[in-house]
Amino acid sequence: IADLTGVLPIDHDMCPNSCIAYTGPFVDLKECLYCSESCYDPIQLQLSNGRKKVPCQHFYTIPLGPQLQALWQTHQGAHNMKHRAQATAKTLAEL
Q: What pLDDT digit, counting tens, does each position of 19-34 carry?
């Protein structure tokens, strides 16, 4: 996605059971508040004596602002973004 649009996804760690995402107020947690599963892969932690912290699961978000900016970058994208306003104006004019 980043190569095509310049929009970079944001990588977040999450509970292996999908209970919570370790973001915002949960960013410093080492285990899930709900199921008590470790945020990090226990095998990797054990093999590295606790130095290598590999999250068990990730999820990605793509921020809305850069998505909208990417849509408005081209003439065709800007035209497509105005479609609803133009269609609404046409419908109201016909009433």
A: 999 989 999 998 999 9
